[in-house]
Amino acid sequence: MEIVSYVGYNNSKTDNVTDILANQLENLKKIFKSKASHKSNSRFLNIPGEFPEVSSSIAKNRGCNIDLSEISCFLSSAGRFCDFLLSNARKIITGTGVLAFLILICVVSVKIHSYIQTLASVVPFEDSYNSEMEILGKVMNDFVLEETQEYSLDGTLTGEKALSESELEKLFRKPVTFVNYRVQPGDTISGITKKFGLKNISTLIAVNDIDNVRTLCSGQKLKIPSIDGLVYTVQKGNTLAGLSTRFGVTIEDLLDVNDLDSAVLHAGQTLFIPGAKMDMSKLQQAMGEMFKCPISAKYRLTSRFGPRADPFSGARSNHTGIDMACPTGTPITATASGTVAFTGVNPVFGNYVIIKHANGYQSLYGHMSMIIAKKGQRVSQGTRIGLVGSTGYSTGPHLHFTVYKNGKLVDPMTLIK
């Protein structure tokens, strides 16, 4: 009985695999012959039920029938597959190598493209860029001035007439007095200051030890002094003469305002310093005007605010902000809370966003690869507004960051913490 017949199989002895396979088939043939029953002419090989893994009912009633034609078909297919592999091995290896090489080329190309994006690229300089800068600057300036300013950088209320020397002298001759006030709905720190005839918002902030005026709420109690000034706690070694020089007030004013009988001071003693103002940076922090860096990832400061050489022409120019170089796609966040005033495209700043903040501050973010914020959107400090790019008049991926205050450019490095 013939067990296996290879149809169309290559009988050449080109490889040991063929000999091995033939030997195994011959062994299989002997096994089948030894197990064959009297129905050897049948197309089934009958093996008595002597296998423990076969269910007991099947083993008891009948043996395990194996279809030799199916085995023959399987082995024939395996033989043809092996023959295909042997005869096409060179082509398969070559094709696999070419595919791997193409994948490697693609990966390297992507890496090179990303690297080139971080380098300077040639951008043609056009005279129209200067006019674009002037137009954009005027738009920003006009937009900022639309907002009414409530106080100056040092906290003095705008529109208030300054007191004369004689008026101040008259005020400082009287001891300071305090009244309590409960904050009403709609009150602001500047409004309360004006309501009680004071001239500087830092007075209420300092006297009431307010860390952030945004936390001011209806029902909160405030202590209101009769004149502008600061509360100071005497330190060891302080003298009236030293405090007079430090805060620019006379010793007589310190004595009169604090109703002191002696010039001797004691550590821990509380004094009111008439006419004194908070440090500007502390006032900004209390007013929530301390800006946060718009890039939280690692960046490189490639250009500062002020005069510089143009990156293309080499001519001296005035840089309106700071440049922060970092990879394309780096998130850009709002430097402070505010409202998105404008989003658009410009030949100079490319894709850019302008945010209007409280008290006349306005910030611009330029060269974005993508704008995320929407015009009119209310954003909090740290809200994602776009992604770093190299659009517009740019030598490579970076963020151009500009800040205006009361219609005038401000060095952003003096604001961001």
Entry keywords:
Glucose Permease (Domain IIA), alpha+beta, Membrane-bound Lytic Murein Transglycosylase D, Chain A, 10-stranded antiparallel sheet, single chain, two-stranded antiparallel ribbon
| Integer average pLDDT | 75
Span from first to last CA?
93 Å
Specify the biggest β-sheet. 10 strands, antiparallel
Q: Into which percentage range does the β-strand content fall?
A: 15-25%
This entry's quaternary arrangement is single chain
Number of helices: 11
Relevant CATH superfamily of the largest domain? Glucose Permease (Domain IIA)
**Helical amount among residues, as a percent range?**
25-40%
Q: Write down the domain tally.
A: 3
Form type: elongated
SSE string: HEHEHHHHEHHEEHHEHEEEEEEEEEEEE
Q: Mind telling me the CATH class of the largest domain?
A: Mainly Beta
